[in-house]
Amino acid sequence: VDSKKWVLMATAQTPTNIAVIKYWGKRDETLILPVNDSISVTLDPSHLCTTTTVAVSPGFEQDRMWLNGKEISLSGGRFQSCLREIRSRACDVEDKEKGIKIEEKDWEKLHVHIASYNNFPTAAGLASSAAGFACLGNVQVYLFFSLSFIIFVFWGCYAYILKVHWWKIDDDFFSLAKLMNLKENPSQLSAIARQGSGSACRSLFGGFVKWIMGKDENGSDSLAVQLVEEEHWNELVIIIAVVSARQKETSSTSGMRESVETSLLLQHRAKEIVPKRIVKMEEAIKNRDFSSFAQLTCADSNQFHAVCLDTSPPIFYMNDTSHRIISYVEKWNCSEGSPQVAYTFDAGPNAVLIARDRQVAAQLLRRLLFFFPPNSDTDLNSYVLGDKSI
Ligand code: 2P0
């Protein structure tokens, strides 16, 4: 590598995932090893995703990163460990046409520039969430691989975002891994993503994904696997209702640390409840058994929030509106005689609602708009995504 004139770039789109059996609690904080297995569904990146371009050039003097156009610090340990892991696996890259050759040993010396944008609708306030993406540890990782979590920008009304297609993952997904010509398979890459942010490892596959907690102390077997192929259960529709105008007060990382330290319910859940639930959930997904799927999803969300309440001091992620949505869905399911909609809430008040099919989703959307009308100053069209599919 002798010329300072070239820049090599790779771009990737990275989706988010929503857990139906939650990850909450680490047994190793540095390696990010969880206390239980978890299962998630990967969302369609055309609706909610981050597009990341990674560039490398001998002309770059340091690693730098921009999030939605604003430069952010890369000093965090998580970022550095991911970069180290990726660099150590980087392979030769050659572009004969342009006369560029980067050998394995060169990657140690080359710095990267990373630019990342999210595709949340700006008018909805969702895209202006650079500040709302408070946990830069997460952000840094998902820029590379995937992401765990999208922390929505909150405002005092609802946004409905519909997902109707399962996303199929391909090689373009891994921007940095691609740039550095990594040979690892997605499961092996997931173990690197995990070290940046736990739930990020589940976004390396489409469809339903399980993060196996693993047993090794070094974390080598704590990785993600795809449970069923992307098209397996494509009748499901996911609607995300953005509920609150406030940013969450307790980050997931510190919240789960406090729960591990203080909640007896967490210990019981990790040992006695989740292992059985994981088996049942895998069965429900395999058989496309919506009743069982919905029952397990709702129960696990409720237990995760019960663990938060069992933490000292207690952590409140849901708000009154979240509770009203739960009551509403429970009543609806009860009146139909079998579940039509599953709900799940992560470390925040926003509702993730999973409808059994498109008819139910259309009904759900109408009912949400009726019972939880958006603020009058909201332009609904600006944040209803994917509604044409319903
Ligand atoms: C999950 N959450 O399974 C659960 C449910 C939040 C509630 O994974 O510390 O941002 O970076 O590993 O991945 C959020 O945790 O935390 C999370 P770190 P992460 O999706």
Helix-strand layout with pairing:
Elements: E1 8-15, E2 17-21, E3 26-28, E4 33-34, E5 38-42, E6 49-57, E7 64-67, E8 70-72, H1 77-89, E9 93-95, E10 100-102, E11 111-118, H2 136-144, E12 160-163, H3 175-179, H4 186-194, E13 208-211, E14 224-228, E15 237-241, H5 252-262, H6 264-286, H7 290-310, H8 320-336, E16 341-345, E17 351-355, H9 358-371
Parallel strand pairs: 7-11
Antiparallel strand pairs: 1-6, 2-5, 3-4, 5-13, 6-11, 7-8, 9-10, 12-15, 13-14, 15-17, 16-17
Bound molecules: ligand 2P0.
Ligand 2P0 binds next to helix 2 and helix 5.
Would you kindly provide a written description of the structure presented here, covering whatever features stand out?
The protein has 390 residues and is α+β, with helices and mostly antiparallel strands. The protein has one domain: Ribosomal Protein S5, domain 2, CATH 3.30.230.10. The chain is built from 9 helices and 17 strands. The protein has helices at 77-89, 136-144, 175-179, 186-194, 252-262, 264-286, 290-310, 320-336, 358-371, and strands at 8-15, 17-21, 26-28, 33-34, 38-42, 49-57, 64-67, 70-72, 93-95, 100-102, 111-118, 160-163, 208-211, 224-228, 237-241, 341-345, 351-355. The strands form 5 sheets. The chain has a 5-stranded mixed sheet with strand order 1-6-11-7-8. Helix 6 packs antiparallel against helix 7 (290-310). The radius of gyration is 21 Å and the shape is globular. It starts with 7 loop residues before the first strand and ends in a 19-residue tail after the last helix. The model is unreliable at 121-173 and 377-390 (pLDDT under 50). Bound molecules: ligand 2P0. The site of ligand 2P0 has 17 residues, from helix 2 and helix 5. Ligand 2P0 binds next to helix 2 and helix 5.
